[in-house]
Amino acid sequence: MQNKKCDTLEAALERLTDDAIILVGGFGIAGVPEILIEGVCDRGLRGLTIVANNSGTHETGIARLLAEGCVGKIICSFPWAVESFVFKEMYEAGKVDLEVVPQGTLAERLRTAGAGLGGFLTPTAVGTELGAGKPVHEIDGKEYVLERPLRGDFALIKAREVDGRGNLTYRMAARNFNPVMAMAADYTIVEAATEVPVGALDPETIVTPGVFVDCYYVAGPYTPGKEGGPYS
Amino acid sequence: MQNKKCDTLEAALERLTDDAIILVGGFGIAGVPEILIEGVCDRGLRGLTIVANNSGTHETGIARLLAEGCVGKIICSFPWAVESFVFKEMYEAGKVDLEVVPQGTLAERLRTAGAGLGGFLTPTAVGTELGAGKPVHEIDGKEYVLERPLRGDFALIKAREVDGRGNLTYRMAARNFNPVMAMAADYTIVEAATEVPVGALDPETIVTPGVFVDCYYVAGPYTPGKEGGPYS
Amino acid sequence: MSERLSRDQIAARVALELEDGWLVNLGIGMPTLTVNYIPEGRDILFHSENGIIGMGPKPAREEDIDPDLMSAGKGPVTLIPGGAFIHHADSFAVARGGRLDAAVLGAFQVAVNGDLANWKLPTAKSGSVGGAMDIAAGAKRVFAMMTHTAKDGEPKIVETLSYPLTAKTCVTKIFTDMAVVAVTPEGYVLEEVAPGFSAEDVQAATGAPLAVPDDLKTIAA
Amino acid sequence: MSERLSRDQIAARVALELEDGWLVNLGIGMPTLTVNYIPEGRDILFHSENGIIGMGPKPAREEDIDPDLMSAGKGPVTLIPGGAFIHHADSFAVARGGRLDAAVLGAFQVAVNGDLANWKLPTAKSGSVGGAMDIAAGAKRVFAMMTHTAKDGEPKIVETLSYPLTAKTCVTKIFTDMAVVAVTPEGYVLEEVAPGFSAEDVQAATGAPLAVPDDLKTIAA
Fold this sequence. Notes:
- Chain A is an alpha/beta fold.
- Chain A has helices at about 10-15, 35-45, 60-65, 85-90, 105-115, 180-185, and strands spanning about 20-25, 50, 70-75, 95-100, 120, 135-140, 140-145, 150-160, 170, 185-195, 215-220.
- Chain A has a domain at about 15-100 and about 150-195 and about 205-215: Glutaconate Coenzyme A-transferase, CATH 3.40.1080.
- Helix content of chain A is about 20%, strand content about 25%.
- In chain A, a hairpin with a 5-residue loop joins strand 8 and strand 9 (about 170).
- Chain C has helices at about 5-15, 90-95, 130-140, 200-205; strands at about 25, 45-50, 50-55, 80-85, 100-105, 110, 115, 140-145, 155-160, 170-175, 180-185, 185-195, 210, 215-220.
- In chain C, strands 1, 2, 3, 4, 5, 8, 10, 11, 12, 13 and 14 form an eleven-stranded mixed sheet that branches.
- The interface of B and C includes residues 111 and 199 of B.
């Protein structure tokens, strides 16, 4: 069997390069691959494009990546949260580019990339600034914008359980963008709370099959209620 | 709480009308809502469009619907199996229309309908008879066919477990088209092997959330190995 | 001078509008208050963008707060029995696919054709759209929930938008601190006024004509 | 006259081509035999259209056959430890999304540019396409597995298709009862011949020129 397990964070992240497009799972504090992101910070990369729901909050995670000058562009749905002050400062100083994408369109562009499709027609953003410049199709009297797939060179995924084949489960709303991002990258890297033996996961309940996972790092057991810890 | 349970097959199927588009789950003998289909036969409807992976096999299920003259059109990926002799006879007699759709395109057209999208671009069928007449988009040097959503007036779904909210699980490869068809119909009717109390299903393992289910009929417990019985 | 309704009073009025068995998405901010006023015995299922179907109220005890169980507005919530977790693409398939019976969304402006503006200020270079455009485009009914006028007194119920569009012709009803206004093919219809306000008071604070039915009601507050 | 390879012998040769760690889809018919010849110690994960990832062999005992666990060809199979079940749209996301390292598909014809015909006879009004078009368009490598010639002796390896197209420029290698032929930008390359056949024998049964390398090998059969 292929060995997808990386014993060190460095090994899990060694393929990352400058200018890579990196999909980062999570929504709020749930399902964020915090430890992988810290590892990316430590790599000192430059020119990264980060695809995530938001633009980083407070001073850790994506915000730290921004502060350390690793990021050239953010693609997200919610850039201007109060807690995204690092991004705001960088953006206003002209140090980072921004593409705002409606949240459902973001999720669907990722899935579309993962599914090998060339695009999709959505009613979202028709006639708005975020639909401007995109082809509009009228079908049965209703207008749709043509949106393109969004593929990552890498995806950083937070999972609850992983087995040796890379099969994943998630925990509650920490699932969010993680399964679609896992599909949508050339190389998918997982930070899992717990590793279980192959065959221990019920095949009916695997959310992301291991065929979408290239390597994983076991970050430690689930610690409920520990602020900032690996909940998921 | 909304009462989605129908105590009789008749009640579950009472909304069906002539000329309806009906999505029917299943692949081979797995995950076919056999009992619902028999109930549809008994309704004596006319002019139905049946969307399924195949065109009915042997003499029960969709084949019986065909034989009894209920069906005006079949939309499927695999019409010409040896066991589909009823369909073959009806088709050659000019009594039923056929639209052949590649299996992955069929699944994606259903999901697209369920997701409220207007269409998608797929590399499948480019340059073939099944892509003929459809708009072709070239993106980054690769050709894609624009496919349209496929929505049902009704979906007939076979599930393993159901709870009072209509949440569903499936059994092994009996999952197949059922979850995407459940999303893609205006009115989704479920044949479940087993009913469980609300709250008994692990929320992490529900495959089809009840918001996609309009009513369900409990067909009886899972009977492993019983040929023709409600396995799933 | 009459008192405008509080945020909680508006929420209580919106809650009455949600029917038994509906699936509902509550936008961040004021709309989230609605959950506290659902009438006893009505089974409303709440959808949250981040893949929660059957979102329940904030946990009663601090120690039951789970960081993996937060609303789209990032507040702690619970899951009701029979709730489910789905991923983000499936969550927006629910929203866009017409399974939301209603979405309650904050608004900067509503136009007489139902156009909604709620994601970006006209002067801003960019905005935080989140799921607003998808949900507004996909829900069966969009209820705009807002103050009747902006802080500077400008009407927010207008003929045509001057703020950037979120979604075309989506708003079906408006709930404010002064009134309930239906958006109909024939224009705005003033359905209810807050206690102490007359139809004329509301019209004076509104940027487009309001039709006033004979049976104009007063919001129970 | 030399004996052509049996279906099982072709399957044994195809099996050697599948590398450790690959995800592979086997088309219905002859390709399914491949599963019986995977060399010891190679971990090949099999994908089935109906949402099985990690499809295993037929159950050893009749009583272990489960009607809910069948291959795309409707034969009884098992699930390996660490296998998973997914729905049809996700299953084709795997196939179309480039996650299949190889697909082994039956074929009526292959053209020199890699075009594949395998779903419909030219005289038929219609065909059973199943997942062939999606898988052929999506897999990283498409291996055509077939008899070298049709029953009437007509070559199936040709310049251009006379049969209806399944997918353009997808076939990377052809495995027949006479030879292994690579499809390259420079044209067909005869890589291996079945025992007892010469390059000339194979060329005579082929509808397009075959380049013959100096190190032409014989298929171990």
